[in-house]
Amino acid sequence: MAMDNASEIFEVEGNGSENDCTLFSLSDEYFEAARVLQETPPVRVNYALVTYYLLGHSAELALKAYLYKHGLNIKDLREIGHNLEKLVTLAKGNGLSEKVKFEHILHLANTYKDKNLEYRKIKKASFPPAHLLTEEIKALQYAVFDKIST
Fold first, then answer.
1. Average pLDDT over residues 68-86
2. pLDDT the model gives residue 11
């Protein structure tokens, strides 16, 4: 039974595969969603944790896009999971530009990896300044795009 209001993302069936382009495009979508939340004043709820999650996931997918382009397969990337520290180490080891800084991404890494942004816990947590994390991820995306677009 077809839904009247259903929409489709892709116009062609496709083969269900993932690659550097699919990973990077999702990274950009998560990044833009975070930017929209950052620019929208909270009305009834504070969505800071959701914004940090979106930014962390954007960084994760950008790093995975870079690593896919440099020889890691999707299975390997899934096994790394949400470990931003490991992804950063691997990306640097595979020649990601020294100009890309990871101070704020690494500050978020443990909270992101432990899924503390997805499942709220009564627990003190430290976060990097959102605007600096955003700038760092945008610079990461530029560096990754330069490598995967060639």
1. 96
2. 63
Q: Which letter, b or e, does each residue of 71-90 get, where b requires 16 or more Cβ atoms within 10 Å of its Cβ?
A: ebeeeebeebebbbeebbeb
Q: Could you tell me the pTM of the whole model? A: 0.90
Burial classification of residue 30, based on how many CB atoms lie within 10 Å of its CB (0-12 exposed, 13-18 middle, 19 or more buried): buried
Which of 22, 44, 47, 19 has its CA nearest to residue 33? Answer: 47
Query: How does residue 1 score in pLDDT terms, banded at 50, 70 and 90?
Result: very low
Asked if residue 67 lies in contact with residue 94, where contact means CB atoms within 8 angstroms, the answer is yes
CA-CA-CA-CA dihedral for 65, 66, 67, 69, to nearest 10: 90
Rounded to whole angstroms, the Cα distance separating 111 from 128 reads: 11
Q: What is the pLDDT of residue 62?
A: 98
Task: Identify whether the C-beta of residue 63 lies closer than 8 Å to the C-beta of residue 82.
Answer: no
Residues 113 and 82 sit within 8 Å (Cβ to Cβ): yes
Q: Is 128 left (phi over 0), alpha (psi -120 to 50) or beta?
A: beta
